[in-house]
Amino acid sequence: MLLVAGLIRMLHLNDNPRSSDNGTNNTNGNGGGEPEAPIWKVLIFDSFCRDVVSTVLRVNDLRDNGVTVHMQLEAQRSPIPDVPAIYFVQPKRESIARMSEDIARDLYELYYVNYASSLPRALLEEFAVQTTASGKAHQIAQVYDQYLNFLCPEENMFSLHLPSTFESIHNPSMTDVAMSSLIDKIVSSLFSVLLTLKTVPTICAPRGNAAEMVATRLDAKLREHILGSRHNLFTEDAEDILSQSRRPMLILLDRDFDLGSMFMHSWTYQALLHDIYDIRLNQITVDKTDDAGRKSTKSYDLNVNDSFWARNADQPFPEVAVSIDDASNAFKREADEITRMGGVSSLDEMGNIDVGASTKQLQRAITTLPELTARKANIDMHMNIATSMLDAIKNRQLDDLFQIEEQLTRQTKTSILEAINDPEKKNPHDKLRLFILYLLANETMRQGDIDECEAALAAAGCDLAPLHYLHKLKRVNKMNASVSSPGIGPASATANTSGAMGSNDLLGKFSSISNRLAGFTEGSSLGSIFSNVRNLLPTRKQLPITRVVESVMAGKSAGGSGLGIGGIRAGIGAATGSSGSSGNGSSGNAVAKMIDSFVYFDPKQARRGNLAGSNASMPHHPSVAGGDGAAQEAIVFVIGGGNYVEYQNLMEFAQQSSPRKHIVYGSTTIVNADGFLNELSRLNAA
């Protein structure tokens, strides 16, 4: 993960770390490259940069790289003499003032200043004036622009950490100055992402919205740096010439083009976790209630280095539960073997064994205890998470909602009303999301039916403000031209050939599972519990964003000889189960027109401007296979919010492509359905 590499380099005082046993990777300066004792230092960051670091590095990672203490820039801090300090902050006037104050107070020995993005010349001069006035400027060892003003929760996923962007863009009180400032922030962060990837892509975006504004300004910024700068950062430290020649496509999209995917219920581990607990900075917080009714909270880190998480994040939840069971059984077998050799009853007693008097086989087994203990903690964590998720699934009947949405175009107003009025579905937001999806998939729904469903939603305790805003959006923007329904329909029926498994049937198999999941030492078997639930699996289907990306990467436009409007309409119709209804047909038509009118930019070309008009063919992509003009690499960025449902759908498409494609997914922020509904609610009141 390139973000991690950039942060580690910063923690090593902007020097390339060398391998060493203690993980600190400093050299003694004798030219031999021999490891020496680490340079211990403190890390000071502002709130934004704290989030950048904490998404991918934990306290032990900081300690392994020589950081003994990390503190907030805004906090009151005591002097720590004879210790260097690394500052990682945003280039803001208040940050400069606080750092200048620290330097004047002589809090630390040396100061290594790192800005998350490029420091403007005016602020650099202001920093120089303030530090010179204190007479301590000589203590500033380094000043670096790191270009790390983004979050990277997954290997192929990034977020600009700009919350409520959809709300900001659509707020009627948004001024031109505020909009321009927001676009500049997006462009600055995207520039940092591209610089971290060491790539200059071709850029494409639909006309007329924020995506085109971002594309135009990003093209200008890249062009200015590449063609007008004497020091090209994109070629600095590049691994090889081939890596520079592979140029991905940067596909910029506005959230408006597909709102449906933001409301979908999912059944995969990661997306379901995000829906229930709202993954923030790769961490979730779970509310727990014990037998006495006492409530408590427990936080869990979803570590990027967790091999179980890496293997199972995109898997259906029942499959994950079986994997937890397999992992716990494998652990118990290894633990039993070690305790048998040691003649003890548990791993906790292994520390009392005389290692010197033990056999070589037992000595080797004892050396594996730290790794085995870490595995036990990891299995416990996922076991506890699964327990809590099962409670949420039961209380909210998420399995039933998922199945209804998988077969959405088979539903009728009556079946939707039954779900809305079902007292067992206890979360009002879930009911509102279901109806919004049904409404988007049935744009010709009669007003009388809409009113009847809205009355049922109100009676169920739903806040209708988000729905009212969507009605406004439809009237203003003609929603059928900017919003497509999610990829769900008859082709998306479950794999259970014996018929759809109802909520009672499924949750009947979950009965008492929470108690049985409490600990793997009690002899429970998740495999047997979930053996009859495996049929409830998501059907592979492409969401609208994936269909757009596939068409754009194929190097075809609706105006050329490739996939035309009818072809795209057919593709979207297949995903939504459309049989040619005017509503779904117009949605497919809207997506086709959007692709057909994409604007294209190539920052490496001397001539500035749009490379392809609405009737022109897409440019040839350097990263091709077989010379057919199809791009093999893409960066897909959504302005206004993204989620793990879209991310996993794009990753599945990339993995199943032949040859395999490489896709990176990003958004202004990663938001779950509840968060997005809150944005719509505030917009309705604006």
Helix content: 40-55%
Mass-distribution shape: globular
Q: Uncertain segments of ≥5 residues (pLDDT<50)?
A: 20-30, 479-524, 531-535, 558-587, 612-617, 620-627
Strand content: 5-15%
Question: How are the strands of the largest sheet arranged?
Answer: 6-7-14-13-9-8-12
Task: Report mean pLDDT, rounded to a whole number.
Answer: 81
Rg from alpha-carbon coordinates: 27 Å
Largest sheet report: 7 strands, mixed
Distance separating the two termini:
40 Å
Q: Would you report the number of β strands?
A: 14
Number of helices: 27
Structural class comes to alpha/beta
What does this structure look like?
This protein is α/β, with parallel strands linked by helices. It is built from 27 helices and 14 strands. A seven-stranded mixed sheet has the order 6-7-14-13-9-8-12, with helices on both faces. Strands 2-1-3-4-5 form a five-stranded parallel sheet. It is globular and about 75 Å long. It starts with a helix and ends with a helix.
What order do the helices and strands come in, and which of them pair?
Blueprint: H1 2-11, E1 41-45, H2 47-56, H3 59-64, E2 67-72, E3 85-89, H4 93-104, E4 111-115, H5 121-134, E5 140-145, E6 151-154, E7 157-159, H6 165-170, H7 176-197, E8 202-205, H8 210-228, H9 241-245, E9 249-254, H10 269-277, E10 283-289, E11 295-301, H11 307-312, H12 317-342, H13 360-367, H14 369-396, H15 398-406, H16 413-421, H17 428-441, H18 447-459, H19 465-477, H20 503-508, H21 513-516, H22 526-530, H23 544-553, H24 565-576, H25 582-596, E12 599-601, E13 633-639, H26 644-656, E14 662-667, H27 673-685
Parallel strand pairs: 1-2, 1-3, 3-4, 4-5, 7-14, 8-9, 9-13, 13-14
Antiparallel strand pairs: 6-7, 8-12, 10-11
Helix pairs in contact: 4-5, 7-8, 12-14, 15-17, 16-18, 19-27, 24-25
